[in-house]
Design a protein that fits this description.
The protein has 17 helices and 16 strands. It is α/β, with parallel strands linked by helices. The strands form four sheets. An eight-stranded parallel beta barrel has the order 1-2-3-4-5-6-7-8, surrounded by ten helices. It has a three-stranded antiparallel β-sheet with strand order 11-12-13. Strands 14-15-16 form a three-stranded antiparallel β-sheet.
């Protein structure tokens, strides 16, 4: 098995992505998480770029990492300035990080047009900087910026930049597709040539995703001779992002049989992905390979039937291997297999030709035809099944509600009051609630009226609220679909409501959310009695 080093740059390169900003405490928390997961190198930040990165390195002196090496990032010395007097190199040393990662120019376009120096001086800048950092006891990772573009422009000069770093003592030579524009065939050819020219060097690969090939190029580079892969969690990064370690790591471990330090913790991969999204305040991308919520979600009836018989028929890896799980989606494309597998998750077992399965499927198809979508509304689907089977016992009955929105004048803020009348166990209750809008006011009033009977609803939090207009051509008479995501701190569920009236659609999803919580609690009580 080939040993591959995983180098994470989420805290530096990933933070350059649009909408990504890490606080000091967030960076420390992510660093601890990556170390616990088994990442080999953690790049903490650009040493000379901002005070927050320097403060991070100062704080990390008090954090004992179990496995990972902390790296400080910077550039080669400035043109015509001795390494010993370069402020960027001094900042790297000031961090106290054991690893120094510096980038240098490989492309003559950058040497002459951006740095505005000579090819010879650029080579001296690379060698002097590496030699200076090695003199101060640092492990040096040399990032050959724009290497593949530079090689296409002038192969011999690009090779000379690597030679300058290697001869000065660089521990690793990292080939960077900084613009993210190279095809996989080019990466393989050029990496293979570098490996041939530098047989004793530890080669690395650093790719960007501008051509949506970052993961493929990284894996291909390993096959061509690279033994270090750089990337970010969830592919965060400038422009379209960096290579995603959440795809690279399982690709290396499960597809290529590579030996990774984090290989024994692969089942933690999805939780790492979700945690970093949470800390970065980013909405998780459902369609992410391996770790996304939809990565192992099956919707078409034929697919569901097949995967129920032989999992690998439509699953390229075991979902549990990366900490994920199979999901069976319910929609108008569903078949009897979807219904049996989905209801099986609920503890209901039906025979293949069961009339109940046909009834559920028929009801599902009719509701989907009217605009309902149950893919993200498992709770509403479970309640639907209970109703079709005539097992549903309402926890309360609505007698009526009204919502009043008032705005005194153009300058004042609108106020919203909802009044609800419900019947619980034969007792009729009437109450009102205020909120920032109709749905918030309804939620407030519903909780207030039910709290006396069901105190557990206080634990329910509405985490997300989605509104979709299904037929916008109907203008203000369009049908609205509302999806609500809820949680009680232990379970998380989704509910759906549909109506031409957005308040009615919201009410339907809101009621399902509350009823599902009460349904879960009742199921637990019944299980405890057994």
């Amino acid at each position: 098995m080939k040993k591959v080093i995983v180098y994470d740059t989420t805290l530096r390169d990933g933070a350059q992505g649009e909408g990504i900003s890490f606080s000091l405490s967030a960076k420390i928390r992510i660093a601890r998480c990556l170390d616990e997961f088994g990442i080999d190198y953690i790049e903490g930040g650009f040493a000379a770029s901002n005070p927050k990165d320097m403060e991070f390195f100062a704080e990390m002196r008090n954090v004992k990492l179990k496995h990972a090496k902390l790296a400080a990032f910077g550039s080669t010395r400035r043109a015509s300035l001795p390494a010993a007097k370069d402020p960027g190199l001094a900042a790297i040393l000031e961090t106290g990080a054991p690893v120094a990662t510096i980038f240098g120019k490989s492309w003559l376009l950058h040497v002459e047009k951006v740095l505005k120096t000579t090819p010879e001086e650029n080579l001296a800048m690379i060698a002097d900087s590496v030699r200076y950092l090695k003199k101060h006891g640092k492990e040096v990772v040399y990032d050959a910026e724009h290497f593949f573009d530079g090689y296409r422009d002038d192969p011999e000069y690009a090779m000379k930049t690597l030679a300058a770093a290697a001869e000065a003592g660089a521990d690793s030579l990292v080939l960077c597709d900084t613009n993210g524009g190279r095809l996989t065939s080019e990466v393989v050819r050029i990496t293979s040539e570098v490996a041939r020219r530098f047989p004793a060097a530890a080669l690395g690969i650093h790719t960007h995703n501008d051509s949506e090939l970052a993961v493929a190029n990284s894996l291909a580079a390993v096959e061509a001779g690279a033994t270090m892969v750089q990337g970010t969690i969830n592919g965060y990064g400038e422009r379209t992002g960096n290579a995603s370690l959440c795809s690279i790591i399982p690709g290396l471990a499960l597809k290529m049989g590579a030996e990774l330090s984090c290989g024994s913790r692969l089942e933690k991969l999805r939780s790492v992905s979700v945690l970093v999204d949470e800390i970065a305040d980013q909405r998780p991308v459902k369609s992410r390979p391996f770790v996304g919520e939809s990565a192992f979600a099956h919707k078409a009836g034929m697919h569901v039937d097949a995967v129920g018989k032989v999992s690998q028929s439509f699953e390229h890896v075991d979902p549990a291997a990366v900490g994920n799980e199979r999901r069976i989606l319910m929609s108008e494309l569903s078949g009897a297999s979807n219904v049996r597998m989905k209801t099986g998750e609920m503890g209901l077992v039906f025979q293949k030709d069961s009339p109940a399965v046909k009834d559920i499927l028929r009801k599902l198809e009719n509701m989907e035809r009217n605009g309902y979508a149950f893919e993200s509304a498992d709770a509403s689907f479970q309640l639907l099944v209970q109703k079709v089977l005539k097992k549903h016992v309402p926890f309360f009955d609505l007698q009526g509600f009204s919502v009043v929105v008032q705005k005194a004048d153009a300058a004042s803020k609108a106020t919203t009051t909802a009044t609800i009348k419900v019947s619980v166990n034969g007792q009729t209750e009437l109450t009102a609630g205020e909120g920032d809008g109709p749905v918030d006011a309804l939620n407030s009033a519903l909780r207030k009226v039910l709290r006396r009977f069901y105190p557990a609803i206080d634990s329910v939090v509405l985490e997300d609220y989605h509104v979709r207009i299904l037929n916008p051509e109907s203008a203000t008479q369009a049908t609205t679909r509302v999806l609500i995501d809820s949680s009680d701190g232990h379970d998380r569920w989704g509910t759906v409501g549909v109506s031409e009236n957005i308040i009615e659609a919201s009410w339907e999803a809101l009621v399902d959310s509350v009823e599902y919580k009460l349904f879960l609690d009742e199921q637990r009580r019944q299980a405890e009695k057994k």
